[in-house]
Amino acid sequence: MGTMPRRCRRVWSAGVIAAAIAAVAPASATAADFTVTTFADPPPGACAPADCSLREAVIAANAAAGPDRIVLGAGSYSLTIAGAGEDAAGTGDLDVTLDRVSVVGAGAGATTITAQGLSDRVFDVLAGGQLVVGGATVRGGQVTGEGGGVRTAGTLIVRDAAIRENRSSGAGSGVFAAAGHVDISDSVIDANTSGGDAALHAEGGTTTTLTRVDVTGNKPTGSGTGGIENSGTMTLTEVNVSGNTAGTNSGGGGIRNQSGALAITRSTISGNRAPTSDSGALFAPAGVVTMRSVTISGNEAASNGGAVRTQGTALVHLDAVTIAGNTSPGASVIAFGDSRIYVRGSVIGDNSATQCQGDGIVSLGGNVAEGGTCATLTGAGDILGPDPRLGPLAGNGGRTLTHALLAGSPALDAAGAGCASVDQRGIARPLGAACDAGAVEARPDLQASFTGGPADFAPGTPAQLTVRVTNAGTGGAGGAGLTLRAAGLELLSATPSQGTCATAGTCALGLIPPAGRRRSRSPLARLRRVPPPSARTQRRWPIGSPATTPRARPSPSSPPHRR
Q: What is the DSSP string of 495-510?
């Protein structure tokens, strides 16, 4: 608490913050910058250069024309002036009423805006208002009604921020979108508590986009969904929905699509619970849900639908989805009534009790389902019965956790053609002869070794070498290649056992399946010097030269991000 030195604040805001906000708040001839100089929340007056509170800066930005920027340093900015229900930011929460107001801190771990003890939310974006929050944590809102952290009927943009530990008696303990547009990226929504539905609640008519967001550890105190509830149009990309808990007699520990359209891509829904009801991961009573390259794992329900449950008129499309390790007394994937679950190129297995239930589960081909309860999956290429041989939920590359396919999995090459161009981790597919079923394309592991040549390796004497390429991975390597090149050797000819070799020694070997071997022979190689003894027998070369095609050895992605 107290007042920050003005000089220090000016230098910091002119450097770091100017760069941080450029992507979300473009400059304008009429824009104004307001630098906050105190952590306190005194009765509002003018926002003077040497004396300006956060509340005063918001009031000034609302009054100024054009997009405005409010700069915060590291520390905790507390809202303490009581008076909920006022809509000019003079008391209670911070109301954003006009144009675009950008509030930018020094990072979510460094700057906090808190309404702890205020009995109101932190921000309220009115119709026509636009709020950008970047590099800060929104915490401690506690409101009777909706939107513990932020309520918006305008435009809300969140970048590199956290919406954490807020409470509401109604829906949307973290964010409640009554109307307008919400765009959140590279942020977390966690540990929020509601008396109604979900940490993030979007009403009908809203448009919501989440990119690289973690929605974790949220729960209601009574009934309601744990993580996300949607009735508008919502898109989730590289999102982690985990560890959320539904309330009493409420389905959808992770996500509830009440109506509208929900699209989920390259994301993981894991470890969510519905301890007194059904639908641990996803509950869809209506609307349209599309999932592509998604992992649904380790969710739990007290009755049906450990993973997915639909009813009413809901339509759910599962494309390249892995559903594994979910727990419920009833089926893990269940379609009630007239609802439909369309399944393509997906894996359902390693779940407790029954895998599938309901005639509304419809195959579009290329699926792998363990046991015999997914009897409606009778499309082209469907494989029913065997263990899908999945690895544990782990960091296999990409932002989110996934299940890798183990050696001998029936899901290898099972999805056929026409899959998405990348898997959940962003790795190109197919890598083998066809796409693998499920969210993850199995990786090849190509290695090369060579043997042969006369014992003396006399300079100028032709020598015959045998090069062996081996795939020790779990997935096939389509388009595998090899370049025969070593210092002091002149290649005279090369004859591969499969594929072709150019005179320069570049060989296209085609597909190398898992645990298979393909040899490329160069029977005449002229040696201009005597190689070291280690080069004569069984030396292994990793295939990592530029001549090897990227499809033969994809680069691993970065490990999952955690906050």
A: EESSSEE-TTSEEEEE
What's the whole-number average pLDDT of the chain? 84
Residue 421 neighbours by CB distance under 10 Å: 8
**CA distances (Å), 497 to each of 36, 469, 486, 520, in order?**
72, 11, 21, 6
- The answer to whether the Cα torsion of 327, 309, 230, 421 is positive or negative is positive
Neighbours of 487 (CB within 10 A): 8
Residue 59, H or E segment: helix 54-63
**pLDDT for 89 beyond 90:** yes
Query: Checking phi first, is residue 424 left (phi over 0); if not, alpha (psi -120 to 50) or beta?
Result: alpha
Pairing between β-strand 489-496 and β-strand 517-527 as defined by DSSP bridges? antiparallel
Per-residue confidence (pLDDT) for residue 236, from 0 to 100:
98
Q: Distance from CA of residue 24 to its chain's centroid? A: 21
Distance CA 409, CA 529 (A): 47
Give the start-to-end residue ranges of the domains of the chain: 446-552
Contact 285, 231 (CB under 8 A): no
CB 290 within 8 A of CB 344: no
Cis before residue 459, ω within 30 degrees of 0? no
Percentage of the chain with pLDDT > 70? Answer: 77
Query: Which residue is it, tokens 């359902």?
Result: 348
In degrees, rounded to 5, the angle at the alpha carbon of residue 306 between the alpha carbons of residues 343 and 362 is 20
Joined together, the tokens standing for residue 221 give 């105190």
pTM: 0.81
Reported in sequence order, the residue ranges of 26-67 that DSSP labels E, i.e. its strands, are 32-35
Which of 170, 172, 303 is CA-nearest to residue 249?
303
Between CA 140 and CA 508 the distance in angstroms is 61
Q: What are phi and psi of 210, to 5 degrees?
A: -120, 130
Least-confidence region, from 18-32, 331-345, 347-361: 18-32
Tell me the CATH class for 446-552. Answer: mainly beta
pLDDT digits (tens, 9 = 90+) for 422-456: 999 999 999 888 999 999 999 766 667 666 655 55
Strand partners for 347: 322, 368
CA atoms within 13 A on the CB side of 313: 6
DSSP secondary structure string, 75-99?
A: EEEE-----TT-SSSSSSSEEE-SS
More confident: 346 or 533: 346
Q: Which long-range contacts (CB under 8 A, 24 or more apart) does 2-7 make?
A: 2/38, 2/39, 2/40, 3/37, 3/38, 3/40, 3/51, 4/37, 4/38, 4/39, 4/73, 4/75, 6/37, 6/49, 6/50
- 290 contacts 266 by C-beta, under 8 angstroms: no
Backbone angles phi, psi at 520, to 5 degrees: -120, 120
- Name beta bridge partners: 262: 234, 289
Q: What is the pLDDT of residues 346-395, one digit of tens each?
A: 999 999 879 999 999 999 999 999 999 999 999 999 999 999 999 999 99
